[in-house]
Amino acid sequence: MNRPLRIILFKTLAYPILILFAVLSLVPFFWLVCASLKPRDIFTRYTFLPPAAEGGKLLTVGDLRTSPEKFVTRISENKDPVSQLIRQNLSPKTEEMLKAFVPGQFARENLKKGLIDDLNRMIQEMNLYSDPAVFKDANLSAETRKFVGKTLGKEEQTDFNRLLLKDAFPDEIARTEWSKLTFDNYYRLFTQIPFLNYIINSAFVTCVGTLLTVFLSAAGGFALAKYQFRGKHLVYLLMSTTLFIPGELLLPSVYDLVYKIGWINSYYSILVPGAVSVFGMFLFRQAMLGVPDDLIEAARIDGCSELRIFWSVALPIVRPMIGAFTLIQFLGLWNSFMWPGIILQTQEKYTLPIALNNMVGLYQQDYGLLMAGTLMGIIPVMLLFFALQKEFISGLTAGAVKG
Amino acid sequence: MPSAQFPCFIQAFCPFFFRLKTSKFEFHLGYIPLVLMTIGLVAGIYVLQRPTPPRADLEVWTFNPSHNEPYQLIAPDFHQKTGLTVKAANSPLRSLMRRTLAHFMTQTPSADVIMVEQGYIGTFFRGPLKDVGFVDLTEIVKEKGIYQLVPESRWSVANKEGHLFGVPLDVHPMMLAYHEQVWKEAGVDMESIETWEEFAEAAKKLVAMPAAQGRHRLALELNNTGSEHLEVMLLQKDIGLIDAALKPQFTNPEVVKSLAWYIRLIAGRNHLENPDKIAGTLSSGDFLSRAIQEGLLVGFLVADWRAQNFQDQNPELAGILRLRPLPKFEGYHRRTSTMGGTMATIPKTSKHPEAALDLIYSVYLDPNAPDRPSKNISFILSPNRQKWAKPNYHEPVPFYGGQVAGELFISLADEVPKRILTPYTPLAREKFAEALNACRTWYEANNFPREGLEEHCAKVLKEMEQDLVLRINRNVFLKNNQSASQN
Amino acid sequence: MSSLKTINPPPKTEIRSPAGASERSLWSFQQALAPYVLVAPFIILFAIFMAYPLMKSFWLAFHQTNGPQSIQYVGFDNFTFMFKDAYFWKALWNTTLFAVGNLAIQIPISLGLALLLNSKLIYGRNIFRFAFFSPHLVGNVFVAVMFSLLFGLQYGLINVGIDSLLRLPPESIEAFLRKIPVVGEAPQIRWLGKAELAIPTLLLIALWTSVGFQMIYFLAGLQAVDKELYEAADIDGAGAWSKFWNVTLPQIKPVFVFVVVTTTIGSYKVFELPYVLFQGAGPNRSALTMVMYLFFEGFETGDLGYAAAIGWVLTFILLIVSVIQIILAKGGGKA
Fold it and tell me: How far are the Cα atoms of A109, A179, A181, B291, B358 from residue A46, in angstroms, in the given order?
């Protein structure tokens, strides 16, 4: 195969695969954003965003989504006046499709569409209430009742028709009011729940913890990279031990320890035990090896103290690693759930993940609220990632490539 | 660079200030650490300075809004009467129970009243008696006469080794709710059915009746995968999964028999496949209310709370359902059973345990307490039998076709079986459900054999029991107390 | 350690230190002390939150507790019971299944994506890279909440997607799709309610979160491969497959081993994802993992001793797994 052909072949294969995976990766986010912006009552009816209220179209295919088969069956079988009214006014085409429909089967999409079109036409053009007997048994809602007996304008008439149909088919046409995008979920998130409080708690723990860990780990890494001192091998040994011990093993005993110190329900027990990261020390040692010794020596000759050298000479040189490790640490702390969940006991101290987990139990059906909460938990990390993206990826992979 | 005139350590730790230029904001490690530091500082100041929400004198933890509400309602009155403030907070059951246990393990102050669901009470009884974090109420409830108010059988749930650690808040007798019209169409007179065996026979007629759209009917709602309904039936035979001496009852021949009987009723997809099938759960995606209206599911084991829920949440079902006592089992007399239940407990760390008990009393037991405003007739039985004389228990309920639901439940209240909850009851329930699933799967996979189901059930249950016994026996804290009776 | 070579001997006298003998000794004192000061936080925290708890957890493993107060010595009972404990085996099996599944699914996909993205012919590589990587930024709790809604029975995006896939296309495709047993008659799949689907569901979610993360590593490894090796292979007339097998794979081996080891260890430690997704251990404990079992036993039941024992077994398993993988990698390299 000649080369250009191979390139074309490669591209035609590669792009669809890449795009497919990229879409799969991003669709959940898109759905999350859409869901958090949808009003509570229409959450179930549109997969993504609700259609904008275009003039005229009052019902959409999505409106029949809840149970189109039942609706079709009811219209075609029932003898009640409302069904008959609808049947009488169907367009010939829809009627034909309705005849071909076998009860108990899935309704075909075009049948549904035909029905929707007819219903929309009826809503807009007719005065459905012209014969009140028809809607006698429909259990009119208070909202609908407000219109009864009044002279209605064209638009009011349409609204009234829509409400009438909704009352007549409470299950089949779930709801026909629609709304545009709303920040209601976010509003409720911050008013119903002390969500801001949780965010502040998380921000505090995460920011302080991250800075502490980055600083202390960098200090350790600097000492290991640039000093020859007694007990260095011991430090390496201890560090390797730590790397091999999963944190989960120590959960019960650290819990016991923290209980004895009296740090239960205190942020100390989250910040202090994790204040030095062994992983971070290794990363920083690796990075600090790249700090030129001459530079350090020059600083010493200038009369810089050792800590000053660390702070003013070494740290700026390993800035990419600081960026990478900051993000790693931020991710870990912002998202940490198990240990804070064990330690924190009073509700006002909860961090975001714990609060969100509790919300799942309390607001199970309230998708929009949960989605808004989830999104609030994702955004800060995303922002930080955008700020540190370059440093992060180079720093993250630095160790692994060299082995 | 400033010369090293200053002590080096101070210099090392404050270079931040040297590097801050007033003209141009710049930090030699980039702006991200600065941003984090600022956020950390601001948030830290807020976190440290934030006023701790004023703790009420009596904090109440509930896991359900309907439990929470009465406390909210009574709070002003109670404050007026005793001068103590009351605050009730709601959180999900599972995390509430875990949090409570964590408080007990670390002996930190929790709430003053905690509502505990019956399924979880056992987890607090796992250790030695002294570790139970609740106040021992044995003496005081008898002294104050509360013990006599509540039906005797209900106290068994809060009982560890003869000590009472909570006040039961309900009676929860059970009845059978059925779709009158459909049963009539099937030619079954529900009122005349005496036993479950008769019921199962009669139900076959109903199940055979064709339903809309070629669907199949279910005569009774029984869980296909969970064991709660079977437990309800076992309680009719006075069998709990674990007895007071911590001995699992899985190998009890009566349990084996019941399990096999139950599986015959629920296995398979429809009655064409398994001729014995009369019961089961709705398939996912069906709406309960619609299934009842269409006569697809026409019988329910309901405790008073579920009967009330039907009335309050499904007004469209008005007039469809009727209530009657549960059928008995042959050889047993009990026409009711029990399901669910909550108790109010008082943690040892409470500063006002007596007031907490008073609060519980006034919310749930005080006969003079005003009724909760409700738009429907409320007939959930109060734990205090003195309150059963109230008019709401003696009014006909239109939702149940004018039956006097309250009186029906009251007539069964003293028949409610005693339920024993041990530290291992939650686990036993899980294992029992596992056995149920395993046996049902076996029965379905072997194409519903006439023979051998009992043997298989016995085998599976034996395995499960062995596992359970293994766990119970290794608990060193309960070893000495295994023979202690549970009142 | 290569670090030793690069370290300069501590500076001696030539420093222009402040005048005065006492200050000079203070100066050299701070120089000698500096490394210890820098390492001190690690040493102190190690002693308090690592060494002591490690011993304590060893001690705990031989005790049965009810919270931190009631503790009783039980000898080897925790370990002997563990061998008989059906739930422990279930947890071990689930976790192993999850780990093996993760390796089998994620590694080929992420390596494949990295190979595609490594090609200079692809435009918008940064966009793709960000798209793949972004799920990894979402914490496990948030992922779990999000997916509990995505996998929701009636209105979750995934079931809705399958549902519309079943309805929209012409008859033949629909008939074909209906033959797939999972899809079956009912388009509503109980992702979170069926014991058999618990681990596959978790694997799907794990795939979403970690493919991009692994891909970043593979990509970095691929970019570090010496281009001359490919040119040499071209001269030898090697095909694409042979180049991949003989040049690329050996070259990215360190990265490969790193990714495999971290994925395995990460999978064995999985907790938040199933715990929040199923709000517990899932139907019939089908999503029970080892760390979750440890958590239940230690913090929902109160037996810190048994939890510590489970922790030790987990540690032991992780050690063995990583040692095996590293030895395999090394051995392969020499051969």
Answer: 16, 12, 12, 25, 51
